[in-house]
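#structure-requests
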Amino acid sequence: MFLRRKLGLSKPLQYKTHHEEKDASFSVTEQILSLLPEIPQTVVVVCIGTDRSTGDALGPLIGSKLKAKDSFPFFVYGTLDEPVHAVNLEEKLAFIKKEHPGAFVIGIDACLGRLNHVGMISLGEGPVKPGAGVNKQLPPVGDIHITGIVNVSGFMEYFVLQNTRLSIVMRMADLISDSLHMACLRKKIQLRAISPTISASDGDIFKIQ
């Protein structure tokens, strides 16, 4: 699918669903699975945001939840304890590039949108663009992206993020982290089925930070 995008033969794949949809967890898992690498390689998840703002805490919450899962095999950057945010983003990306050259990167961030889109989860090919909702110029992150619309855009964005309901952020963080965890475990099974010689110690895609 990435070859098609590079050749300009199709638009980048994009998928959206509301986190309260009946089959949201299943469908998000399926979409993440379809976007993960087809061969074993290093996978890095970069969860962007800060715990100093309720709305912007979606990324760090997801990062902390993923780090707490013992069986999650991808490298994770951006947690409540060690957030990746506007101030240190470029430094963290440089570190990741040095530590994990050629890694497949998943960028995760909160965003603002239309009122009827609040609660939507969006994922697809291409990077997340952190800071766009609050008019900040920050480097794009990821080969694929996962974003959650936590509140309404268009007016006093910083104030809106800081006054976002924690309940919606927590529900979205639970769904995204659980779906990503399930997708990566299923990808591991797929890869082992294709290449039975692959073991938990072979292939960076199975390494745990």
